[in-house]
Amino acid sequence: MSKMSRNSSHFNSDRHAVANSSVCLDSCSCGAWIKYSLFVLNFIVWIAGVAFISIGIWTRLDKGELGPFDSIVIDPAFLFIGIGSLMFFISIFGCTGAIRDNICLLKTFSILLALVFIAELVSGVLTFVFLDDLELGLLSYTRKAIENYYDDASLSEAIDYIQETFKCCGGSGYNDWEANIYFNCSSMARPKCGVPSSCCKESTDMTSLKNFQCGFGARKDGATVASYTIYTTGCISALNALFRNNFLVFGLIAFSVGILELAAILLAHSRMRQILKMQQEHASRHVYEMQHVDSTDQVSL
After folding, report:
1. Which of 30, 72, 94, 248 could form a cystine bridge with 109, CB 3.0-4.6 A?
2. Is pLDDT above 70 for 72?
3. Does the reported pTM lie above 0.85?
4. pLDDT confidence of 64, banded at 50, 70, 90?
5. Which residues on neighbouring strands pair with residue 200, listed in sequence order?
6. Within 10 Å of residue 3's Cβ, how many Cβ atoms?
7. What is the chain's mean pLDDT, rounded?
């Protein structure tokens, strides 16, 4: 009996030691920290994804159809919906996999995030390589926008906002407005040979109201005369200058996003290793218990 008691006591102490090692894995060895950090990070991304989708859908429904200018490539609403859907989809795998300790979901999350990271690197490289082609594409879309300026209120507001914010006019220059039937020099309309009021320079007299006809006929006397009343630089050039002047800021933002993505991948892999270790310890404990049960039965016999 004393031998059975010693075996039972030894078995119980070993069992508690193995169990304690498993508990320590999830609490003492940063297991819980990694698990809930991964969950919180993905939950924040999930909320951001929902916000992006909502903004995109609201913007799209608010503006409706843009006619010939309507395109999935150039409409920012589709960009918001696409990015938001990607964030929403990937973060679900991360949240669920982290909170349920599911290796399959965590592995799927890591693979998808790695693919996104690679796609971002490739798109960044391609943007620099094909920068001229991108600029030509933007000029083409800008020309379409100018042609349809008066056909859609949301479109005209967007163009006016860009021209006023960046103090520019047209795509490549102020003469791009020749493509619009109302601003064309051969037009019979009042704005002929002119530009929208959003191209006009701000008046020094702060008390005066904005003159919405300030751009009418502004192009007929040439660039020198026009430069006194309107902006003559194209918006594509202004955007290029903005990007080059703030290259460090954009670079830091892109770098920070990449670091967060890599951190999430590393956290997921760390959690997967911990889950595998816990599963192996659980299997070892089960085998250990079965062996001690058999040995106890033999002693009792």
Report:
1. 94
2. no
3. no
4. low
5. 230
6. 9
7. 78
